[in-house]
Amino acid sequence: MLTSRLAQHLGGTLLLGSDDDIVTLCHDSRACAPGCAYFAFKGIHFDGEDFIGEAIARGASLVVCSTRNPDLESSASFIILADGDVRHAYAVASDALFSHPSGRISLIGVTGTDGKTSTCHYIHQLLRKRGKRCGLLSTTSVDEGDGMMPSPYANTTPEAFDVQRTIAKAADGGAGHFVLECSSHALDRRYDRLAGCIFSSSCFTRITSEHLEFHGTWDDYVDSKLNLARRTRGPVFVYDDNPVLERLKTICPHSLVVLTRPEVVDRDGDGLDFVHEGHRYHLPFFPDFALENAWMAALLVSTLTHTPPALVLCDLANLVNPPGRQEMMSIAGRLVVIDFAHTPDAFDRLMTSLRLVHPSGSFIALFGASGNRDRSKRRLMGDVAARHCSTVILTEDDPRQEDVMDICNDIADGIEPGRCRLRICPQRSKAVEEAVRLSRSGDVILLLGVGPQKALDHYTYHMPWNERQAVLDAFKEVL
User: Fold this and answer.
1) Which CATH number belongs to the domain containing residue 110 in this structure?
2) Whether residue 424 has pLDDT greater than 70
3) Which of 318, 336, 352 delimits the end of a domain?
4) Are 410 and 375 in contact, with CB atoms under 8 Å apart?
5) What is the band of 374 on the pLDDT scale with cuts at 50, 70, 90?
6) Which of 36, 175, 224, 302 shows a CA-CA span of 20 to 30 A to 243?
7) pTM of whole model > 0.85?
């Protein structure tokens, strides 16, 4: 796309050096090269405008920013944005560069606090079982049309260029549908990673308080989530007890699909059975929240493919969970559960469901909380864990710039003294060993919050991590 053409999409003031062909977009000056447009974001820690010189030195043909450095002599072109919203411009440019991919495919968005990743994977699997080619971009995985791979991105919803490129590749490869996991950060107007995306349908999973370190208030957090509904042209699925229901009735009154949960009639460690319109169906997972996510996925797929619900519900029996979600390991008489749960509500629902199928035996929970993130949930996480578990072990979980002990102490403040056996082990590998050491045959060990992550973020370095391997190593070391 020529510089002049891109400028028409973005508006602002064009200071044209030469009308070069723009073939890629960058927001990291170190990645710039000839044919690249550099977007100077104002980030949390750095201001992209401080690196304009480096971007041009590396060959950037165009710089998009809010102010031009008057001392900078260059042949590069500039687009000066009057509103200064470089992130929004980056999303608009990404959409334009890839020829508006969401207009060429049925884009399905999923947002919420808990259950987003699982619901995305269930929709993806159910569409494929209906014979539909489908792409996927979730926290854990990506399918551009060539098969499932681990997601290479650090964020649930990556930056706009990566989102649009992935959707475009799936659309160009013949996929008719694409499932996109949408974080509140990506939907928020300040980051606006999904500007330009048009959704054919969307789902709202369970919403509880999260990420208030960024959004500030519950209302702002919810309003960011609701941007998905504002960008959805077709049906919007939500449960009848979701706290955003009333606001959705205002935003999309004619396209809202309000769901109620089916009746569970049987449950054991191998899954659960439920009834719908007199017919019995099986789900190979036992928690209620798994049924909640799978039921929503099934009804969405039924609607999009014009397939009778009964046929799609039969496919639930063959679903598999995404990596690090309700991952079960039976070792030496213990059940080890690896799960990404990282909110008080997710803790409560997982532990309640586990107790239904494991009525005897002690629960040992191991977890921490992310540093530089919503501190308001930490005490509640400790309180919930102590109500369900005989032992709570607090440890590291992406501490970033915070001290691990400070985070653990915040969580411990929510645990009433004497309510459970409490241990603090800042090093996660040692915490896993402690969990195994304290366990007995018949116990359930829950490793929470990290799931499939390949590293723990300590801000200045990333420590390689594999939760499953840590469990195997701990049992070998301790028993």
Assistant:
1) 3.40.1190.10
2) yes
3) 318
4) yes
5) confident
6) 302
7) yes
Residues 312 and 360 in one domain: no
Q: Write the DSSP symbol of residue 311.
A: H
Residues 38, 43, 46, 52: what is their CA dihedral angle, to the nearest 10 degrees?
20
Asked if 305 and 336 sit in the same domain, the reply is no
CA pair distance 340, 308, nearest whole angstrom? 33
Query: pLDDT tens digit string along 222-260?
Result: 999 999 999 999 999 999 999 999 999 999 999 999 999
CATH of the domain at 468: 3.90.190.20
**77's tokens:** 């072109």
What is the distance between the alpha carbons of residues 113 and 344, in angstroms, rounded to a whole number? Answer: 11
- Taking the C-alpha atoms of residue 395 and residue 408, their distance in angstroms, rounded to an integer, is 7
Are 134 and 88 in the same domain?
no
Q: Among 318, 352, 378, where does a domain finish?
A: 318
Helix (H) or strand (E) holding 350: helix 344-357
287 contacts: CB under 8 Å, gap ≥ 6 = 326, 349, 350, 353, 354
| CATH number of the domain residue 32 falls in | 3.40.1390.10
Same domain for 25 and 148 = no
Q: Are residues 141 and 51 in the same domain?
A: no
Q: Kindly state whether residues 155 and 45 are assigned to the same domain.
A: no
pLDDT in tens, 80-93: 998 889 999 999 99
Mean pLDDT is lowest, of 66-70, 105-109, 269-273, 343-347, for 66-70
Tell me: do 91 and 106 sit in the same domain: no
Alpha helix (H) residue ranges in 16-115:
52-57, 86-97
Q: Using CB atoms within 10 A of its CB, is residue 66 exposed (0-12), middle (13-18) or buried (19+)?
A: middle
- The number of folded domains in the chain is 3
186: CB partners within 8 A, 6+ apart: 155, 156, 157, 163, 192, 193, 194
Contacts with 448 (C-beta within 8 Å, 6 or more apart), sequence order: 339, 340, 341, 342, 347, 350, 365, 366, 367
**Cα–Cα dist 461/452, whole Å:** 18
Q: Which helix (H) or strand (E) holds 300?
A: helix 288-305
Q: Are 166 and 135 in contact (CB under 8 A)?
A: yes
109 and 80: one domain? no
Tokens of 181: 């996991």
Pair of tokens at residue 12 = 């602002």
DSSP per-residue codes, 410-472: HHHTTS-TTSSEEEE-SSHHHHHHHHHHH--TT-EEEEES-TT-SEEE-SS-EEE--HHHHHH
The amino acid present at 130, given as its one-letter code, is R
